[in-house]
Amino acid sequence: MMTTEIKALTFDVFGTVVDWRGSILAELNALGRAQGISENWDAFVEQWRQGFRQGQADVRAGKLPWTNMASIHRKKLDELLVEYGIHNLTEEEITRLNTAWYRLKPWQDTIPGLTRLKKKYILATLSNGDMPGLVNLSKFAVLPWDCIFSVDMFKHFKPARATYIGACELLGLPPEQVMMVAAHNYDLKAAQSFRMKTGFVLRAHEFGPQQTVDLKPEGEWDVVVQDLEELAAVMGT
Amino acid sequence: MMTTEIKALTFDVFGTVVDWRGSILAELNALGRAQGISENWDAFVEQWRQGFRQGQADVRAGKLPWTNMASIHRKKLDELLVEYGIHNLTEEEITRLNTAWYRLKPWQDTIPGLTRLKKKYILATLSNGDMPGLVNLSKFAVLPWDCIFSVDMFKHFKPARATYIGACELLGLPPEQVMMVAAHNYDLKAAQSFRMKTGFVLRAHEFGPQQTVDLKPEGEWDVVVQDLEELAAVMGT
Is residue B161 located within the same domain as residue B61? Predict the structure, then answer.
């Protein structure tokens, strides 16, 4: 791979750049302590995330009209609160809990890695997150993007072609000059099929200590790294 | 106006945030010296900008399909080079000249003003510039945006409704919570008609020493300031 040809990097965000599971768990635990609720929050957060996966599948299958991450999360959260018998939250508290997805901590290597990469490359998100969420999250976590692309702009979730090609077109670059960076093989597989370059970042604990998926590259990715600081080094920054 | 209700500011870029005329003139003068070409560059740059205004009008009138700023600029530049009898530029030099619109200097108050405003508000562009141009320009000039909106995303130029409402929707905010900031009355007039808040910034020399337009507010704008540092102060940052 000629890194000199690459002009921009587009990043998956949830899992690749920020630790959603650890951050959401911390919010749920804090809420539980404050409200005197004791639950299996590990299971709660896994079901919540699974609800988002199901929502995406329903949109893809045409069972749902376009619905973004915040709306899918909120619907699932309402269901989970009933399922877990949590009835004492105000609307304001529920809204605040749903926007916990805007208050996620970057992995330790994220800020130093992105800061180095930004000197040489255009850095953008390309995330299945909703645009308001990505903007607020990036401000909260001080993520140094040059620009933010959300699937809200394309009304399709990754791995739809419209998202990858849409981002490259907005950058004014051929896909060959843009590298998709993700901790998820499915994302890179799609990006590669549309001729983007691919960078795999290992996030072995994204889904917790029992993680079974995405523990290794499952394709001929252009770059495979342990974290974003290693990516910065490999990309010559 | 309750500034506490405002969550985001969307900025016009060319003229409001960066000095396009002075920057382009400097590039043309440097090119002229290097190539031994002596022309009335003031007239050249005015005709170039006028070409963009005409291109927008043609797109609005349906005479042209959607064509972004970079493409309109390039077409007009090619015409101007013929008109001025400048035949000795290589394709690379012409391309470089057209991308002079990505190498513009911020006004002196821009960076300090935006840096202060960013602490309290989401800052976005909402510009008739093309997206690749805005991304590269923002990187070049180190403009501290939270996100970049270009009319490329909406396939309409300002003052079309789709641009203002599209930006507010992507921010997930009602128009009342977003302030359009511009040095141009036409832009604020449209934004206000769609219920956005409005901030007028006086840029008395955007069009050079003979400027006759936008020398004063021509509407009931929520805020009128001399520069972006004053805006930061008025907005409580």
Answer: no
